[in-house]
Specification:
Blueprint: H1 2-27, H2 45-81, H3 87-119
Length: about 150
């Protein structure tokens, strides 16, 4: 009987240690500021503020396209749910969604390249400014990251 207790206790202790080590491993990915990514710590405060301002300007440029994309996706979903969907309109919406997605991707890529060239950092999906930390955007992905899942 005592052997089973020791075995159960050992398994529970192993599980706690495993979960704790995973939590500590994740902690290494974040800085003291709360998740700005590895390039953030290389910047002084002025550069950090400039990066946050650039990020906000980028979001303001991309946001209307994302809203348009969400509206088109909703329209497509409504068409697909109808008993007799209009194939021509579905094709038109599909092409519009592909175009919008490509434009958003190109804008994001240009933004990242510009930040890399001018500031020496290239925040990717893990980047969030202080004002956006933990905020879920209207697209359901987190701070301004688009429709679908999230990062």
């Amino acid at each position: 009987m005592s052997g089973k207790i020791y075995l159960s206790f050992g398994a529970a202790l192993l599980a706690v240690l495993l979960i704790g080590s995973l939590a500590l491993a994740q902690q290494g990915r974040w800085t003291q500021e709360g998740g700005y990514g590895p390039g953030w710590t290389q910047l002084d405060e002025q550069q950090q503020q400039e990066l946050l301002e650039r990020r906000q300007a980028h979001h303001e440029q991309v946001y209307p396209k994302r809203q348009h994309m969400i509206a088109r996706q909703a329209e497509l979903n409504a068409l697909l749910a109808s008993p007799e969907p209009d194939q021509a309109r579905i094709e038109e919406l599909k092409q519009d969604l592909v175009q919008l997605n490509q434009e958003i991707f190109e804008m994001r890529l240009e933004h990242r390249i510009q930040n890399r060239q001018e500031l020496g950092v290239c925040p990717g999906k893990g980047f969030r400014g202080k004002q956006n930390r933990g905020v879920r955007g209207p697209e359901g992905r987190g701070a301004f990251e688009g429709p679908g899942r999230y990062r």
